[in-house]
Design goal:
Layout lengths: L1 H23 L5 E2 L8 E2 L1 H12 L1 H21 L4 H7 L2 H22 L4 H30 L4 H7 L8 H38 L1
Antiparallel strand pairs: 1-2
Helix pairs in contact: 1-2, 1-3, 2-3, 2-5, 2-6, 2-8, 3-4, 3-5, 5-6, 6-8
Length: 203
């Protein structure tokens, strides 16, 4: 039991270190394509891989860690005005991140007793869900919290005044969301499969 606990702590420490690099080293965790819009993030990949390895409870806590870092970053080194406006809000920073970690962990548990291609599909699905959860929840929460905010709309692009904020967000952030989802879904099984095999050998 002591060995297993030590193993979990070592894995968590490693992923926290990776996460900090992604957060604070430019163009590792957040890749900026358009200067006025939020960066494309590779962070959901790290969240998905960790949550699949460690389970839903640990995944939820790791998602919380992501959210707190995102909140901290929005106040200390925002990369663009939209990120500053969105992620200085506690709910927008924390809720999508926490749910992303929880859902990927739950999917990992659902597929843990499967084998071969079925399990790899579970990893693929978990990667996609992790990224989609983050994007969809950010869009939904922003559309509620910032409803009628003309300043945010102005920074998102040239849209007709009557355009609903949720539609503007889907158009403005949708491309980022698609790229993130495809990337996370494809790469998660490539990393998770050998990691799971290595973990079995250590047990």
């Amino acid at each position: 039991m002591h060995r297993k606990q030590t193993q979990k702590m070592a894995i968590t420490a490693l992923f926290v270190a990776i996460f900090l690099l992604q957060t604070f080293v430019p163009n590792i965790g957040y890749i900026r394509i358009l200067p006025t819009l939020p960066a494309i993030t590779t962070v959901p990949l790290t969240v998905a891989v960790y949550s699949l390895l460690m389970g839903p409870k640990a995944g939820t806590l790791f998602g919380l860690f992501w959210g707190l870092l995102r909140l901290f970053q929005a106040y200390t080194q925002p990369g663009d005005i939209v990120s500053l406006m969105l992620f200085q809000n506690v709910f927008i920073s924390l809720v999508p991140s926490i749910l992303a970690g929880l859902f990927s962990g739950l999917l990992g548990r659902a597929f843990q007793n499967k084998s071969g291609k079925t399990r790899e599909f579970g990893y693929f699905l978990a990667g996609a869900v992790t990224s989609l959860t983050n994007t969809v929840m950010v869009i939904l929460l922003t559309s509620v919290i910032f409803a009628g905010n003309a300043k945010l709309v102005a920074h998102l692009g040239n849209f007709a005044p009557s355009t609903p904020l949720i539609m503007i967000l889907i158009v403005a952030l949708g491309l980022n969301g698609v790229i993130e989802t495809v990337f996370t879904a494809v790469v998660t099984p490539l990393i998770e499969t050998p990691l799971q095999k290595a973990m079995k050998k250590l047990r």
